[in-house]
Amino acid sequence: MIRSIAIAIATLASTAVASADTRVNYFPVTANSRPHDVAVAADGKVWYSGQRAGYLGLLDPKTGKDENIPIGSGSAPHGVIVAPDGAAWLTDGGLNANVRYDTKTKKFDYYPLPPHLPNANLNTGVFDKDGVYWFTGQNGVHGYVNPKTGKHESWKSPRRGTYGITVTPTNEVWYVALAGDHLGKIDKATGNVMIVEPHKKGTGPRRVWTDSKGLLWVSFWHSGEVGRYDPATKAWKTWLLPGNPGSGCYSVYVDEKDQVWLTDFMTNAIVRFDPATEKFESFPSDKRGAQVRQMLGRPGEAWGAESGNDRLVQIKY
């Protein structure tokens, strides 16, 4: 059963002009759902994971309609992304399974992890350029699902904390480990991982995203920094977020212009970083405790979920 909430944007979506080239919009969703991750579909609608309520959400920014699709008893979805065929995929820590929602049949397919990995604490997924879905689990797990064949494999990561994940323009799969404090490149044939240490110990890399040149951008939770790793030169460069005392940089997303978007829990803001000028621009939330845990988007739009305020946030640029 799908729970639908149709609300006029003028009533519930407040708007604030942040700068000459940007506009921030807010879209409330179901109360106490704790939306975690977001993913924009081809038609402009936005999928999100209702982590606390155990549902897959779908927001229509044009009308404010919010659909809540129950995933199953015990569900606690974390990540959500859109597949090449338009299906929504979730990492579900409660079910210990990766889940696919078919938008045509309105049905779920479940890909549970093997019995020897009972509590993976599934985190984030990504599609490589071959259409294979790769995922992470915070208890030190990584793996894949091939939607074409149904084959799926999971491996123990070399350290715990396996978290954010990305695919480069050359089709390499990299992840970062928050608790395990490393960047890792997955050998897609064997599941083995090549570890890259951060620029200093104890930084807590949380999310990772590639730019158009294959440079890897990393959000450092414990140090409040954004970092860039160049796989060709094997060199790090880092920047401290403005006004940040040295912790709380959660997510990272690189847009089509290679601008880097981050979320900062300590300043309650979304931050845009221009690598060319090395300058930051901050977009503070209009409510306290936003806690935007992940960002994604499409050309001209950056999206996140204010898990602390039960609403989605859009920055149009």
Structure description:
Strand 20 and strand 21 form a beta hairpin. The protein has a domain at 1-112 and 285-317: Thrombin, subunit H (Beta Barrel). The chain has one helix and 30 strands. It has a five-stranded antiparallel sheet with strand order 1-7-6-5-4, with no helix packed on it. It has a five-stranded antiparallel sheet with strand order 2-3-30-29-28, with no helix packed on it. The chain has a four-stranded antiparallel sheet with strand order 8-9-10-11, with no helix packed on it. The chain starts with a strand and ends with a strand. The chain is an all-beta fold and 317 residues long. The chain has one helix spanning 9-12, and strands at residues 3-5, 15-19, 22-28, 35-40, 46-50, 55-59, 66-70, 77-82, 88-92, 97-102, 107-112, 122-127, 133-137, 141-145, 152-156, 162-167, 173-177, 182-186, 193-196, 205-210, 216-220, 225-230, 235-240, 249-254, 260-264, 269-274, 279-284, 292-298, 301-306, 311-316.
Residue share in helix: under 10%
The strand count comes to 30
Low-confidence regions: 1-17
CATH class of the domain at 1-112 and 285-317: Mainly Beta
Question: Helix/strand/pairing class, anyone?
Answer: mainly beta
Strand order of the largest sheet: 1-7-6-5-4
The first-to-last residue Cα distance is: 36 Å
Radius of gyration: 18 Å
The largest pleated sheet is described as: 5 strands, antiparallel
The DSSP helix count reads 1
CATH arch. level architecture of the domain at 1-112 and 285-317: Beta Barrel
CATH topology tier name of the domain at 1-112 and 285-317: Thrombin, subunit H
Q: Quick check: average pLDDT?
A: 94
Strand content: over 45%
Principal-axes geometry comes out as globular
